[in-house]
Amino acid sequence: MDVTKGQQVFWALLILLVTAEETFASRVTIRTHGDLWAGTNSDIDLTLRIISLSGSTRNIYCDFPCERSDWCLRRSEDTAPCDDFNGILKSVTVRSHGGGPHPSWRVDWVKVSDGGRDYILQFDVWMDPGDYSTREVQVGIAPVMHSCLGRMKRMVNGSEKDTTEALCADNIATSSTTWVKMRPGDDSWIEFEAEWETSFQGPSSTDWPRPYYIDDHGIGVISAAVDWWLVRDGTNVMDGTVRCLDCGISKDSPKTSMHDCKKNVNMTVKPQHGDRLYFRVKSRNGGYVKIRNYDGTSNYIVNPPVYFSGREIAHTAHFTFDLNPPYHCSVLGSCTDNMLDRGKAITKDAHINLHWSGWRDDDSGISEYEYEVFMLAPTGEYLQERQPAIAGGKIGPNVTEMSIVLNETGVYSIVLTVEDSCGPDNGNFISARRFLIFDNSSTVEVDTSRHTMWVDSVGGSSTWQTDLQDSTGHGQKVVVKWPDHFYNHLHRHNKFLNPIDDHQLSSISSQYEERTGIPPETRSREEIPNVNGIVLFQTDWAVDHEGGRSLTGPPGNWTNVTDMITDRETFITAYVRPSDTGGLGKLVRCKLYKGRSRDVMITALTDYGWKDQNTVLNDVTDTEDAWRYSYLMTSCFWNRRDPYRRFDELAELPPPDPLTWLLRAGRNVFKTATSYFQDGGRSIGKATDQSKLVLTKSKNIDG
C-alpha cells in the first residue's frame, strides 16, 4: 500500500489527532436536503464529541443560525465556525429546537473540516422540533467482500447428498432467486450453509511510519455474521443469526488479513413449496488507537484505546423451494398439444421425427428436455428397455423437435424427460414415454408341411357339405381352420407383441405413457393379441357362375375375423387374409362348388361342366336358395391355383340310401373319367356352376 492511500484509509479518514502543543480551527458545513419543504427556520445546534489526549471526553457546541432567512434553505450548504478541539472526533449530534414558520427540517449531511481535511457524515433524516440525530465517526472505507456463497444441502446420516448453491449480490433487490427442490426425509435433513471472505487493511509501517505520539493501533475486520430467515406466505416462520468470530476478532483484535467464514444452520422447520429462505452475510471493519500522552518531560503515559466501529459491507441471496415437477397442459388443463409425438406407431421408415409441445412449469420454469431412445428386449414374458439408450441428448427449453434414425428392426421406447430450473441434473422432472415398432424386413410366412388349412365343417375326410345355412340363419356355415399355418418368425421369436414392462430408470405416471391401445391406432404397453405374431385375419367372399374362373381377386369387402385367436373362421365369406402388423399380407384361397345334392353336383360337373354351361346355370339360378346347395371343396392353396386337383367323390360317406348312392357314384365316376379323357384332361376348375373363391389374407403388424 502506498503512503497516500494509507493516509486516506486510516490517518486521514479515521481520526483527528493533535499533540499537546497543536490546535486546529474547525468549522462545520450542513447541507439541507433537496426535497420539497426540506428547509427550515428552526434553531439548530451541533455537538462535536471529542476524546482528549488525556483520555477524557468533552463536547464542543456549534450554533447554527437557521432562523436567518438565507440559511438552511432547500439544497443549501451553510458553514459555521466551531471551537478548536484538542483530541479525537468521535461523533456529531444535530438537534432541532423548533421555531419559525417551517420548523421541520431534512438534513442531508454534515461535514467537519479541520486541519485541511474534511470528514463527511451522512444523516439523511427528517427532524421535527425537539428531535436529534447522532452519527459516529467511522472508517471511511468498508471492508472488501471477496466472495459470498450460500448452499442448501440435503444431509443423510451426516453425509452431504444434494447441494444447490446461490451466489450473493450486494442487495436483495438486485439478487435473483435460486430454486431448490429439497425435501427432508426420515433419515435426512436440510442444512443451510453460508461462506464468505472479507478483508480490510490499513497502512503498514512500511507504507508510512506512524507518528511518535501513536503508541499502537489496529484496524481490520472486527465482526462478521450471517442473518437468515424463512418466509412462508409473507410471514417469517424461522430466523436467526450466526456470528463468525473465528480467530478471536474484535475491536481490540481486528483482523488485518483475509477473514474466512463458513457457518451452518439445520432447518428445524420443514420447507414447503413456495417457501423462501433469505440470508445476508456481513462484515464490519474498525479498530483502535492508543495515544501517548506526554507530560512535558521525557516520559509519557499511554491513554486507553480509542475505538472506531468502521463500516459494514453486506451481501445477500435467497432460495425458493420448488417441490412440484413440470406438467403437460393436457393433464392439468384442456389443451390439445401433443406431449410426445413419434409419428406412426408401426412404421417401415427408419427416420423418426419427434415433436412435443404444451409443457409447463409455473415456478422455476423449464430448464431442459432430454430425449432417450431404447430398444426393447424380451425378459420372460415382458419387453424391457435395453441399456444404454441407442440415441439421446439434452436440449434447451426452446427446442421442441428432434430427428432420429433407427438401424435395426425391433420395438422401441422413446422417453422425453422434462426438467425444471432447480437443476441441472438435480431438478424436479417428469417423463413421458411412447412406443413404436420399426420393421422394414419381416413378412408373414406359412407352414405347409405340418400345419395346413382345411374345411372343418365338412366332417371327416369328406369334400362335400350338404347342410348349409340359409338366408334366415338356419343350417351349417362353411368353417375353415388354419391353426399355426400363418406366422411371423421375427415377431414371434423376439416377442414383439408382448406386454411392455415399467420404465427401469424412473416411475412414469399413467397420464404420461400409453398403457392401453393396440395397432393400428397405437403401440402401447398392452399386449397385442396375436397368434404366432399374426394380429389380424380378414375375410371376403365372391360368387360366380363360371366355376371360379372369373374370380381373379377379392371384391374388397373385407371383414375382420372377430375370434382370431381360434385360428378359424366360419365361412359365408370366402377370402381370408392373415396379418402380423396391420398391413395386407399374402392370399390363400380355396375353391368351392355347390349343387342341389352331391350326385346332382357331380353330374353337373362331369356331364356338363365344360360342355353345356346353361344346364348347370339353370340348376342354381335361385339366389335365395343358394346357401342350401351342397358344396364341393378342393384343398386350399398358398398363392396359386392348382389346375390338376380333382374331387375325391369316393371318399364321401354313403347317403341314407346306400344302393342309390352307389349307383349314382358309379355312374358319375364313369362319366367323369370318360369326360376327362375326351377333353384331354382339362381341369375340373372349368365347371360352370356358380362358384365361390375362398381366400385367406394375413397381415403383419407393420403391414
Estimate the mean pLDDT confidence.
76
- Give a quick account of the main beta sheet: strands, pairing sense, barrel closure: 9 strands, mixed
The tally of strands reads: 42
Give the overall silhouette.
rod-shaped
> Beta fraction of the residues?
35-45%
Helical run tally: 5
Name the structural class: mainly beta
Helix content: under 10%
Report the radius of gyration as a whole number of Å.
51 Å
Give unreliable regions as ranges.
1-23, 568-657, 675-694
Distance between the termini: 84 Å
Can you tell me the number of structural domains? 4
Keywords: Signal
Signal peptide: 1-25
Protein name: PLAT domain-containing protein
InterPro entries: PLAT/LH2_dom_sf (IPR036392)
Question: Would you kindly provide a written description of the structure presented here, covering whatever features stand out?
Answer:
The protein is mainly beta. The protein folds into 4 domains: 3-136, Sandwich (Lipoxygenase-1), CATH 2.60.60; 144-321, Coagulation Factor XIII, Chain A, domain 1; 327-438, Immunoglobulin-like, CATH 2.60.40.10; 447-488 and 533-703, no CATH class. Helix content is 8%, strand content 43%. Strands 31, 34, 35, 36, 38, 39, 40, 41 and 42 form a 9-stranded mixed beta sheet that branches. Strands 11, 13, 14, 16, 17, 18 and 19 form a 7-stranded mixed beta sheet that branches. Strands 21-28-27-24-25 form a 5-stranded mixed beta sheet, with no helix packed on it. The relative contact order is 0.08. Residues 1-23, 568-657 and 675-694 have low confidence and may be disordered.
